[in-house]
Design a protein that fits this description.
Elements: E1 2-13, H1 21-25, E2 28-39, H2 56-63, E3 68-72, H3 77-86, E4 90-93, H4 99-115, E5 127-136, E6 139-143, E7 159-160, H5 162-165, H6 172-176
Parallel strand pairs: 1-3, 3-4
Antiparallel strand pairs: 1-2, 2-5, 4-7, 5-6
This protein binds zinc ion (ZN).
């Protein structure tokens, strides 16, 4: 059985080293859609794979990306200083922020949240099966566990700015660490 939950966020970025001049030379934003697919081998006592209300941390994690700038840490120092100094909500990443990398990253982070989750309602083997990131209405990238090898990175190199951490209701870092 597969269940799916959809989240939305608006983020800005630059995608370096791609064909499109517009994408690689301009700060621009997208209205992203994140689809989270979760599987299980049995239903819980509420006859569900899992109650969506348990996904409050996933919701807060994804909300961290809303109205944030996604900054590749290999940008030059001038650009990084500009973004850090003039934007409060910044997520620094050890890779360029494409739909592909965002889906693999969110898979890794949400997988950690799910593995650290305490299920108390007779849930079965609840697993994250895929994260699908739509950057536009016409295209998406989907990451599964098999795709981790495409993007080796350390979760600790994903840095959320103070402007994001200050509004967290939960200590997300401790739940993904
Ligand atoms: Zn873009």
């Amino acid at each position: 059985m597969v269940i799916r939950k959809l989240f939305r966020f608006e983020s800005a970025h630059i995608v370096r080293n791609c064909y499109s001049e517009r994408c690689r030379e301009n700060i621009h934003g997208h209205s992203y859609t994140a689809e989270i697919f979760i599987t299980s081998d049995k239903l819980d006592k509420g006859f569900m794979v899992m109650d969506f209300s348990l996904l409050y941390l996933v919701k807060e994690l994804i909300d961290s990306f809303d109205h944030s700038y996604l900054l590749w840490n290999e940008e030059n120092d001038d650009f990084k200083s500009f973004i850090r100094n003039y934007s409060a909500r910044v997520i620094e990443l050890p890779f360029s922020p494409t739909a592909e990398t965002i889906s693999i990253m969110l898979f890794a982070l949400i997988d950690r949240i799910l593995s650290n989750m305490e299920f108390k309602n007779g849930e079965g083997n609840v697993q994250l099966s895929a994260v699908r990131i739509h950057e536009t209405v016409t295209g998406y990238a989907e990451a599964t566990r098999a795709d981790w090898g495409m993007l080796p990175f350390d979760i600790r190199d994903i840095r959320f700015s103070e402007g994001i951490r200050n509004v967290w209701q939960n200590d997300i870092l401790s739940r993904i660490g």
